[in-house]
Amino acid sequence: MRESSGRTRRAVLAGAGATVTASLAGCSGLPIGESQPTVTGERLSTILADEPPSIPDRLPVAFESTYLDDVANDLESALASVPTPFGADQIPNGAMRDRFNRNSAAAREALTAAAEEPTPRERAGSLRHARREVGYVVGGWAAVDDGRTVPDVRDDGEGLREDIHAFRRRWTYLGADAIEATVVNDAIAGLVRSCIGGLNRVLATRERDTTTALDVAEADEQLASARGELRDASHLFDRLRARDGARDRGDALAGAADALADRVADRRAAVGLAEGPFTAEADREATPAERALRDLRDDVRRDEIGETLATGGFPQAIVGAHGTLAGIGAVETLRSRVGSGEAIDPASPEDVDAIRTRAREAVVAAHEDGEYPRLDRVQTHRLAAVLRYVDDRLARVDADDEIALSRLDWELRDLVRVEAVARSVNDASAAVARALERE
């Protein structure tokens, strides 16, 4: 699986689903050079025998199950109000009818999937996906059946704009302690930011001569998603307000964010990453460690913490500093390995096994051994998700298929990166905790 020029790891992971799967599954018919090492799907299945660790919900303040039940019930009721599956008498346009029926089916699947999620946060995320699908179907049917227009959707968006302003007026960085305030308010900020982005897309939508019910459906999809994100943010904030000992931690977070911005700048300079050009692409013969090192260097060079601080986003700046400090530690680890010749250059299935085992064990250790688990989980929850993502890609190789190890470039790079970052998580958490405790 060779890397396309200019594509970063983040872009690959964000859009890899079908593309990466297609490049792995059913590859037995592809030519393999005589000198290329290979691995079979059967051997990969043994490599994946030990599942990624199960990391508890990354938020110390969880979504209440009764709240999530109410959200699911509201979505079920909204979907039930639409007479699906649609027939030709309801929507004569066949292409439009098929689209709405597909989205209706997707909405029901999303609601079913949400009910099966293992943690409240993951269930909330799946329900946000279901909201989009339900919003699309309900909005589209309203356009067909009742003449709903894009300006109608924008008018509803103006109401949401007022709701956002009202929430932001009452939102403060509450928490029973500074770590709780950081982690939960960072999640709230992410929801609000996404809500505002979705609302801006709704308000930017314009009626055209070619506008159809599908355009209305797309606008309502964005609006439903934005409404749901604000509803989730408000719920988390109310949960914080109800906590024993909860008070405004804004001053502590502001001081810690400033200190951590300086700490990141110092560490970045110490390892020679304060400036320098970004790398466009990796050498085709680069090892997974060299590829991971390249991507980590570029990520660490991106200085977004100062911009976040300038807007008063102290929880986001602190969480961003946590991730950057872990990334800098990972750069040091990989530089040492590559420089000393200790990095694995995969030449056999056993090398694949070793890379994957190292990644899994590093995440387990970071999760089990850290002194600040609430901070650790900000990273380990995500790293475990990347492990599951890669495992899913590898598991789709048919048992009887044989593929060249070179086709696993992306997966092995991501595993190496997971391991290196995981080994630095606990130190990053300790640095963040010290900054928060000093304030």
From TrEMBL:
Official protein name in the record: Uncharacterized protein
Species of origin reads Halobaculum roseum
Q: Which domain of life is it from?
A: Archaea
Q: What is the lineage of its organism?
A: Archaea, Methanobacteriati, Methanobacteriota, Stenosarchaea group, Halobacteria
